[in-house]
Amino acid sequence: MHGISVLGSTGSIGRQTLSVAERLGLRVCALTANKNIALLEEQVRKFKPAIAAVYNVGFAQDFAVRVRDCDVRVVSGMDGLIEAARTRDADTVVTAVVGMVGLYPTLAAIGQGKRIALVNKEPLVCAGELVMKSAKEHGAEIIPVDSEHSAAFQCLLGENWNSVKKLILTASGGPFRGMSHDQLQGVTPGMALRHPNWSMGRKISVDSATLMNKGLEVIEAVHLFGIPPEKISVVVHPESIIHSMIEFIDNSLTAQLSQPDMRLPIQFALTYPHRKPSAVKELDLTTLGALTFEEPDYDAFPCLRLAIETAGIHGTVCSVLNGANEAAVKLFLRGEIGFYDIFESVKAALDNIENITNPSIDDIIEAGEDAKRFVNNAKNTYMMKG
Hints:
seven-stranded parallel beta sheet; alpha/beta; about 375 residues
């Protein structure tokens, strides 16, 4: 029975990972959370990990008191996340945290030659070249959990890369599919959070509504698969049954189909190269009905175009894109800016922050922080125009 560490165990993907791990009989060696110490306590008592990390140092002491009767070592802050990622007992680390907080723990796990079940997209979006280089040097496996990248990974198994013509990422279209630029002017955070197919966290739900999430997935795919952005395309597929496709040079297509249920790519990352029976509902093709496909509307969803334009640029530009988007989404969720102000703020950050073409890890992190500061400081200048 192999062991796993789950970074971000109290989030949506973290909770589903523990459900899958329990069903597979996997040993849970480490759990981490940010502030939700009540749920983390429940998880510690149920799964009995050796390490529990609370990233928010202010909550760690209270958590340690709550679990003092448990045989668990409580650690905190970034050092705690890194320790949870490095623990010897775990051969797989599920990186289900949100944001650049996952970069150092991911690199720490890679440095130990562990398998990374990659959920946290920011390390590849912002520092993909460095992360993939480190994985190669240390013999670490990176198995994507994001449904689209997991699908592409599965479609490419056993294939010769010289025969690949195009990687096609599917997008549900989010809650605003089919709406025009004018119709989207007044949408609210509550409307943006109502995704038609997937249950996700607030930030990722907004990214899905703007289609920035799909643009970030293009950037991630560039690094994960070593494929140039011009060989990646996006197609809107509202049913979310086909998760990605590979087009080959003979114009044939291979696709991965399943119910839109994150437990399936989670399980595949944990059991690869083997497959196991899962709790995911069987896909009944006879009752499925039509599968439809559309071109993305780049006018209504300019964040997608903006992200794709940065995908092939070396340096800190993608970290700026990511940091600016993160800050703008927070402002939108607080009702301080409008829907299209997210795009305007990210574009302004890209236009005003210099790209460092051969960055260090510190440069990449600082670029993202600069972008957040820029968006927060400039919101009244670049946004709130209406």
